[in-house]
Design brief:
Elements (H helix, E strand, L loop, with lengths): L5 E7 L15 E18 L1 H4 L8 E2 L3 E3 L2 E8 L11 E8 L6 E9 L9 E4 L10 E3 L5 E9 H5 L8 E16 L13 H11 L5 E5 L2 E5 L1 H7 L1 H7 L10 E4 L4 H8 L13 H7 L8 H9 L1 H8 L2 H9 L1 H18 L2 H4 L20
Parallel strand pairs: 12-14
Antiparallel strand pairs: 1-2, 2-11, 3-5, 4-5, 5-6, 6-10, 7-8, 7-9, 7-11, 12-13
Family: Belongs to the Tdpoz family.
Pfam families: BACK_BPM_SPOP (PF24570), BTB (PF00651), MATH_2 (PF22486)
Pathway: Protein modification; protein ubiquitination
């Protein structure tokens, strides 16, 4: 196999002397011209039987592919030209597929079968070419030698052994392309952070807060809770945080409900949003016995403000308006019992509009 040749030309766009360097962009491209190389070995047996085939008639190798084109070796036992009167054998390499102006380098070698290594070589490779690579205009175009070897000399040489000749052919098809800046892409695996958070929760390692729910203790991590839920963020780090943030007693909630809430570390992959409070409400219809408990938790004034600031609340308004209606009823009940209904008044309702239907900023 012959080594690949390569020529590179770089083009750099430079700013003119009148342009400002700070406002000029410098770009770069590279023109690459190289050869795509391939080789083929052609063994000709029964040489003496091929003599007399006729001038201009050839024995062909099988076709082989190099550089996207098909090629074949043609051997003329009686020569290619009538003017030589079968004095010479001819050897050519031919373009055997469709092509126009195919530029290539060639090498034809008749193998010395004595083992002395005195091969007869005609090559474009490894030397300067005054007119550049050879151009084949169309299918059937050939490069080679009409007078490759005098027949009488060939028949008494070491190139012919056991009535057999061996030909080695190399083809280098010239290819050109322009390269711009290279871009690289790095495949990123799907995130498994949810799995890791779930394993962290289940391990109980380095927990820093305990929740007491009807005598059942749930250990968790403050920072993870706060990062994933505005309710916990307010309860653990906000201005309304509990006085004792290491042991928190949870009222008016059953342990199974809180366990669902604690598992927000690892929400289901099908959940279209990751906010805890919206996630809890979205599963209310699937867990009917927990419905009233969840609504009551969200409707509490200290939790509702944080809930309304989440993207999950917007999703809830669009996808579950009936749940929003029930939540509104719970808010009304809580306000009635807590005495803060006068602060809400008729100014704002949960769908983001006032009593006249105008859009206003949600606030409590």
């Amino acid at each position: 196999m012959v080594g690949m040749g390569r020529v590179e030309n770089e083009a750099i766009a430079k700013p003119s002397s009148s342009s400002s360097p700070s406002s000029s962009a410098v770009t770069m491209s590279t023109s690459v011209t190289e050869t795509v190389n391939g080789s083929h070995d052609f063994k000709i047996t029964g040489y003496s039987l091929s003599k007399g085939i006729g001038i201009g008639k050839y024995i062909s190798s099988d076709t082989f592919m190099v550089g996207g084109y098909s090629w074949a070796i043609y051997f003329y036992p009686d020569g290619k030209s009538t003017e030589d009167n079968a004095t010479y054998v001819s050897l050519f390499i031919a373009l055997a597929s469709e092509g126009t102006d195919v530029r290539a380098l060639f090498e034809l070698t008749l193998i010395d079968q004595s083992g002395k290594g005195r091969h007869k070589v005609h090559s474009h490779f490894g030397r300067a070419l005054e007119s550049g690579p050879y151009t084949l205009k169309y299918r059937g175009s050939m490069w080679g030698y009409k007078r490759f070897f005098k027949r009488t000399a060939l028949e008494s040489s070491d190139y012919l052994k056991d009535d057999c000749l061996q030909v080695h052919c190399c083809v280098g098809v010239v290819k050109s392309r322009t390269e711009g800046p290279k871009t690289y892409s790095i495949p990123i695996s799907p995130s498994d952070i949810g799995l890791h958070f779930g394993q962290l929760l289940e391990s109980g390692k380095d927990t820093d807060v305990n929740f007491d729910v009807n005598g059942e203790i749930f250990a968790a991590h403050k920072l993870v809770l706060a990062a994933r839920s505005p309710v916990f963020r307010a309860q653990l780090f906000g201005p309304m945080k509990d006085q004792n943030t290491e042991h928190i007693k949870v009222e008016d909630m059953e342990a199974p409900v809180f366990k669902v809430k604690a598992l927000y570390y690892r929400p289901p992959l099908s959940c279209p949003y990751l906010d805890l409070t919206a996630y809890l409400v979205s599963i209310i219809n699937a867990i009917c016995p927990l419905k009233s408990v969840c609504l009551k938790f969200v409707a509490m004034p200290e939790n509702l403000r944080a809930v309304m600031q989440t993207d999950g609340f917007d999703y809830l308004k669009e996808s579950c308006p009936h749940v929003l209606t029930e939540l509104l009823e719970y808010v009304a009940r809580v306000n009635e019992h807590s005495g803060i209904a006068s602060k809400l008044g008729n100014e704002v309702v949960l769908d983001g509009g006032d009593v006249n239907g105008r859009r206003v900023k949600q606030r409590l």
